[in-house]
Amino acid sequence: MLVTPDIIRRLRSTIEPTVLRLGFELVAVELVGGLSGRPVLRVSIDKPGGAGIHDCATTSRELSPMLDAEDPIASAYELEVSTPGIERPVQTAADFARFVGCEIRIKPFGIEGKKRTRGTLKGIADDIVTVVIAGSNPPQERRIPLVNIERAALNLSLEQFSRLGKGQPIFP
Fold first, then answer.
1. 104 and which of 80, 121, 140, 146 could share a cystine (Cβ 3.0–4.6 Å)?
2. Over the range 131-148, which residues count as b (16 or more CB within 10 Å of their CB) and which as e?
3. pTM of the model
4. In the sheet that 117-125 helps form, which strands lie side by side, from edge to edge?
């Protein structure tokens, strides 16, 4: 299944109201290949202090019948609801702004997906994400339009992950 920005936007707009109603933040919506050969609709949720397994189960129970009724994916798929983890996905402009200074990996959509970027998130302005490329000397920046990003994930240290889970700022 070809994943496009439009599919992800449509899935996010379908899923987000339910996740918000349950009191969670919708961190990410991803459509990835599964081991069974069927796509996996991966939904990441969080809340202050961290979401747990019961939160994921509740969200899955609420989303499943709603997604069955809406039928946003043409083929059969598996629903997976989880917490973001130490390699936290980043999808929204607000999250790119929130995590400035963090290490990040970005994979663009389509053919450009071969031009993956790894470095330090410098910021976002006018829906353009700026990353300082890891290991570049002198420092080089790459600017990537938000709509062209298929997947972006933070590379948090254990300390940063712990602080985030406690609802504290990542940088002391």
1. 121
2. bbeeeeeeeeebebebeb
3. 0.86
4. 141-145, 128-133, 117-125, 103-108, 149-154
